[in-house]
């Protein structure tokens, strides 16, 4: 049930992110979640999009290096402490969270979080057992 994340390696210079987002926009690709990490010379742009195949093709055709990673998406209550509850479920099951970031979309009562962990299946199992709803590709397309 994991969702696909695009990791795009980009130069750390002005205009790079706008170039990527314009390319995706021209192909009618909607960005659902986004994270940028940077170092001195390059950046790592992580994306969840509504059309992964077209996004990969579009960016690869423009010379971007892309890696696809399966990540866990989880819907949590949009109230203080709910993120901690989800993270505690994983911690209690000895699942390390390598990184996380939020979806751009939210509802009145829920927020959506992307989690990168070592074992997606185990993380999904323990989160579901604790009552959390996992985000599917179909959910991403509805956001």
Question: What is the topological layout?
Answer:
Blueprint: E1 3-11, H1 16-26, E2 31-38, E3 42-49, H2 52-61, E4 65-77, H3 82-92, E5 97-102, E6 110-117, H4 120-129, E7 133-135, H5 137-142
Antiparallel strand pairs: 1-3, 1-4, 2-3, 4-6, 4-7, 5-6
Q: How would you summarize what this structure contains?
A:
This protein has helices at residues 16-26, 52-61, 82-92, 120-129, 137-142, and strands at residues 3-11, 31-38, 42-49, 65-77, 97-102, 110-117, 133-135. By secondary structure, it is α+β, with helices and mostly antiparallel strands.
Explained architecture:
- By secondary structure, the chain is an alpha+beta fold.
- The protein folds into 2 domains: 3-69, VC0802-like (2-Layer Sandwich), CATH 3.30.2130; 70-142, 2-Layer Sandwich (VC0802-like), CATH 3.30.2130.10.
- Strands 1, 2, 3, 4, 5, 6 and 7 form a 7-stranded antiparallel sheet that branches.
- The longest helix has 11 residues, at 16-26.
- It is globular.
- The model has no long low-confidence stretch (mean pLDDT 89).
- It has helices spanning 16-26, 52-61, 82-92, 120-129, 137-142, and strands at residues 3-11, 31-38, 42-49, 65-77, 97-102, 110-117, 133-135.
The total of beta strands comes to: 7
SSE string, helix = H, strand = E?
EHEEHEHEEHEH
CATH topology of the largest domain: VC0802-like
Secondary structure class reads alpha+beta
Report how far apart the termini are. 17 Å
Largest sheet: 7 strands, antiparallel
Mean pLDDT: 89
CATH level-two architecture of the largest domain: 2-Layer Sandwich
The portion of residues assigned to helices is: 25-40%
Radius of gyration: 16 Å
Task: Please identify which CATH superfamily of the largest domain we are dealing with.
Answer: VC0802-like
Strand content: 35-45%
Which overall shape is indicated by the principal axes computed on the Cα atoms? globular
